[in-house]
Sequence to fold (165 residues):
Amino acid sequence: MLEIHRIGHGMDDVKATISRNIELQVEDIAISGKEGEVMNIPLWAGEILQRNNLAELDVPDAVTDLKQALIKEQVAGEYQLATLDERFYIRLRHQMEQLDRHDRDGVEGIMMELVRMRRGKIVRLADSSRLTGELKSRITIEERLLYESISRQGGAFDGMVTKNE
Fold:
């Protein structure tokens, strides 16, 4: 299921500014643009164009989103989850792959802090309530899998999470 969402992320549109006139056709996909033109194209195609200096991508900064998500999660309280896009971690990991090792380590530390906070809340919620539509809209695909796994185990994770997590 996660792989399907990773593939889906690659299919998401991204804004690309064309660096020089291009005319490309790959199977059913055609990309045609003039220098300076801004267009929406699938992320996977945009990354290929960018690597070949044919376009510049305008990708939302997932690291900034991570820092904001951590703050929102801290404010949300012990039994409430802040809303994250279902592909939040997939987007973040994708951007982390582009970072140098030092920067990636720093971002990974922030990400792990967020994951620990949310995991603790999800374990408590999965142990005590059903997955409602509202809750489902607040969690990522990975968190949904965790929630469903805990729910199926029926409390097998009791005592696994401390108040500090």
Summary: The helical segments are 2-11, 43-51, 62-76, 88-96, 101-128, 133-136, 141-153. The domain at 2-58 is CATH 3.40.5.50 (Ribosomal Protein L9; domain 1).
